[in-house]
């Protein structure tokens, strides 16, 4: 009886709402609007209190984080594919496995806060507001890219996001930055995405102390589970509030993992085992963790997630198509913006007969 | 000593370029050797003491910028900084020891006048100073960073070359640190030895995206510094430290600009072009006077002023007129900026040199 009724309702509703019948049926049945989850307690350094150990996740937020993480995951895998097909050249550092870090970070800060990072930046580019299209087109070096095709993987910028930087800071630079930030109480959160390897060197072989959250010395620190988007969100909120209340800088270490190698030219298995990667994938994958949580607490159903997957896949495929078919920037632009407001001067190209004009 | 070595080197370079005739005549006369050595060192071949000697030659009082005041180089710098902080509410000055006035007194009185938020000390970290300066400039404020001696600029080399110079280009003009100016005392001072005498302009000349400027006098320094601060590209301003007290001139009190990337022909001539920058300009002026008096050689003296981007046209125009070029600088000979000038001139005016 109930089944017949349900079927009738679904027929009616599907005609009205023009959504897949199953979805409408589910929507009218059982889901909750939000749920409380326990998250891992953060290790604290020089802090009396830390972020909360429970948090409330709304259905809307959950689906949003899932969509963002899935988009980043698929975008990185598409970039991998494009690189192997030689549409993307040069350097490409992928962040699949670390999606919870960028999505959780964005969830914990305001869009008007400023973010800067190093080269493993595609995820952050997306969360800070760049479209997948502009990211993939930038990777393939086309004029539809966010840096007009001139920047590539490591030089993507958008308002309130200062890259994407190819050159990385050394320990001395960080020490000086810590000193100045602490001295002048600058509201700065220093985040270390600890994916356990520096290129091909395991952290234990490169660092005298791998408790990176303590390396700020006189700056307080948190160590956060970087595979759990809710943990990252709460920790980021806590760190941002700490800075906003003028207490000075704070260090945050996100314990995370990258599935790919350091870059596309690194197979990623010469310094770690496939077993290790597989372990992390099956036990702590951030997307899987969020999905399981939401399904188990009835915030959403597997079908909804599958739908989101389909939509994301389509978005990525469209973006990849655009990235491959968009024309490259005109060669004249190679010399632009070296200086500002200077009279245009000639820049020599790769041979003495090739000249570009430097306009600004 | 460096000055004369460079001068000799410059002459050798010219000879190698193939202009044999005139030089043979001069060398044959034996006067050239006499010209090169200071008068106190004649005779004894073994132990010749070469002393870095010059006399500062002030320019005539400028009339077109209003009231002037007698200032030495560091006072002219203070005046420029004072004008900048008064005009631009976002301007800040920072560096080691700038708060009390600086080790060369270039920032005396500014902290009292403008407050400790605008004139402040940094910790001892050149890399941090420039990195911090880049960050301030990116937010849109005007950052005037002081590196205490040009010899100490090398820890900041990465920040300057890899970050500051490329900020605009790599972000496709979305961001820039154009309002950054880095000032540093530069050049030999007599007792500076290894780490208080260096002239590193050639290292930075190799880096597109920044501007490098060296003034020769208080009037030039104030105008050039104001131009650097207002320029929308990151600039490095080297101040010849030996001129801080020794150079005294009438300098306008109000702000004014001396254009960047324009060399100045200080003295017109017809026989040979002499190019220099900073303190060496005064040595070259003396050389020009001696050459005129003792050899009847009419020298055209050019102060390059901006090292990068340098004024190729003025120098080439002069060489086309005179047919000979001599470049003199304090920095080491190999890879010094004279090599860039001489190779560009030889490429641009092959028939002349």
UniProtKB/TrEMBL annotation, chain A:
Domain of life assignment: Eukaryota
One MF annotation (Gene Ontology) recorded for this entry: pyruvate dehydrogenase (acetyl-transferring) activity
Cofactor: thiamine diphosphate
Residue ranges crossing the lipid bilayer per the database entry: none
Sequence ranges assigned to domain Dehydrogenase E1 component in this UniProt record: 170-330
Pfam families, A to Z: E1_dh
GO process annotations (BP): pyruvate decarboxylation to acetyl-CoA
UniProt keyword terms in alphabetical order: Oxidoreductase, Pyruvate, Thiamine pyrophosphate, Transit peptide
Record's protein name: Pyruvate dehydrogenase E1 component subunit alpha, testis-specific form, mitochondrial isoform X2
Organism from which the protein derives: Ursus maritimus
UniProtKB/TrEMBL annotation, chain B:
Family annotation (InterPro entries): THDP-binding, Transketo_C/PFOR_II, Transketolase-like_Pyr-bd, Transketolase_C
One of the Pfam families matching this protein, by short name: Transketolase_C
Recorded coiled-coil stretches: none
EC number from the UniProt entry: 1.2.4.4
Keywords: Oxidoreductase
UniProt keyword Electron transport, yes or no: no
A Gene Ontology molecular function term of the record: branched-chain 2-oxo acid dehydrogenase activity
Domain Transketolase-like pyrimidine-binding positions: 71-246
Alphabetical list of SMART domains matching this protein: Transket_pyr (SM00861)
Cofactor: thiamine diphosphate
PANTHER family registered for this protein in UniProt: 2-OXOISOVALERATE DEHYDROGENASE SUBUNIT BETA, MITOCHONDRIAL, 2-OXOISOVALERATE DEHYDROGENASE SUBUNIT BETA-RELATED
Protein name in the entry: 3-methyl-2-oxobutanoate dehydrogenase (2-methylpropanoyl-transferring)
